[in-house]
Amino acid sequence: MLREPLTLTIGGERMTLRKKTLLIISTTFLGVIIILFFISQEILLDSYIDMPEDIYNRVQDTVAYLVLSIVGVSLVFAVVTILLLEKGILSQVYRLIKNVSSIGRSGDISTRVSIPGTYELAILASTINGMLAVLEESEGELRESEKRFKELTDLLPQIVFETDERGNLIFVNQQTFQATGYTPDDFNQGLNASQLVIPEDRDKVRKNIQTTLSGDKVDGQEQTALRKDGSTYPVIVYVTPIMREGKTVGTRGLVVDITERKRAEEKLQELYNEERELRQNLETEINKRIDFTRALVHELKTPITPVLAASELLLEELKDKPLLSLVQSIDRSASNLNRRIDELLDLARGELDMLRIEPESVDPIQLLQEIGDEERPVALGNSQSLILELPPALPAIRADRERLRQVIANLLNNAFKFTPAGGTITLRAREDAPNLIVEVQDTGRGISKKEQQGLFEAYYRAESGREHLSGLGLGLALAKRLVELQEGQIWVKSRKGEGSTFGFSIPLAVTSREKRGIKPGEES
Hints:
Blueprint: E1 7-10, E2 13-16, H1 17-47, H2 53-106, H3 120-155, E3 159-163, E4 169-172, H4 174-180, H5 184-189, H6 202-213, E5 218-226, E6 232-244, E7 247-257, H7 259-317, H8 321-351, E8 360-362, H9 364-381, E9 385-389, E10 397-399, H10 401-418, E11 424-432, E12 435-442, H11 449-452, H12 475-485, E13 490-494, E14 500-507, H13 512-515
Parallel strand pairs: 9-11
Antiparallel strand pairs: 1-2, 3-4, 3-7, 5-6, 6-7, 8-10, 11-12, 12-14, 13-14
């Protein structure tokens, strides 16, 4: 039976347990013989020194025989002891050593040590088996954890990698092979992280490894990756150190392909350049339009001014009704043309953010009554009724008086234009803190929902107003611009065949409660 010897070191030399056991027993046996020899000699010298020589010799032979008998018995006992020790203990120790050595060589921790019995070696074997079971369980958990980690990294669309202290790749996910063109065989043969970037960026890789080995991170460094076929693509690299027992043993990182982002940036830059060119062209066209509008207004204002002056003088001088009627027509037409020119100029200013307002404290009741008195003759001339529905008093507002007059006049003229003879136009106002609400209601044909969508756009005219082509379609657009410049809003409410109500809001200078000296939160 072959056994692997259990070796021990004694005095710098290696000796098996069996040899040492034999050495100890032999030494002990030799010591016993020497002791017995000296004891027997001492007895003979002390007890039989005076005996005759022949008797002394026989006693000495008897003692020698006794000593040899004792030695023989001791020798048999020693042999038996060695055999029992060999069979009962040493063989089990050899068996234990063989099993443990076999597990160590194979690495198969699922194997168990089998030592029968209940004595110490069996307990030791059981303890070793317990340790192997714990190791097997831990190894299983570790393998399961590694499996989950690999499965998760393989799901990522980015490259995930780990390197040793020299930058050699020791782990990569599946995306690495897809992105770089390298194969698992290439990885198994050995790849360095610097091989995956262009030569110009390899110093960056080495510096990143040194940085992470010192315990720092590398966040968002841009590099150019190199595929196996020699093609390149831009990436962002994130690297962090791998720490074990307080020591950096490698690096772990993420590589993000930013090709699409680069394309988007290039496209964005291209669009920006196009937009800048278009903006420059637009500014050129706007400047041309400004110059044209100024020239147009100048050319129109120049001849219309004397026409207005002349018509006003003729109205004062003429008494003959037929001629007076003609002059009045000329004066109305000239005034209408003058208003259109002013609207055109104001709208152009508004589009270019050149339209300015000069706010002041305005009494709404007084302003609305003045406008009503000015516009009532127009209503009478159209066989219409103009009604003012005003409360006894309204709080002051902070607004541009003339621009507000222009807005209300535009809404009234629009109502006059689209209300048939015999119809009624109502101008009303009310306080709806923190705003003043002004409305112009007519009994005209009404406006459909579709037509309402474009009412406040420049040059727009509703279908119901195609027959009224006396305007450029600028009045409502200009009114909207003037109201919004004064922090208000404008709207329309209408149904086909039920008339229309145009309204707008202007912030009050003070609310009614504040005017009466009541602070917010106090009871009136």
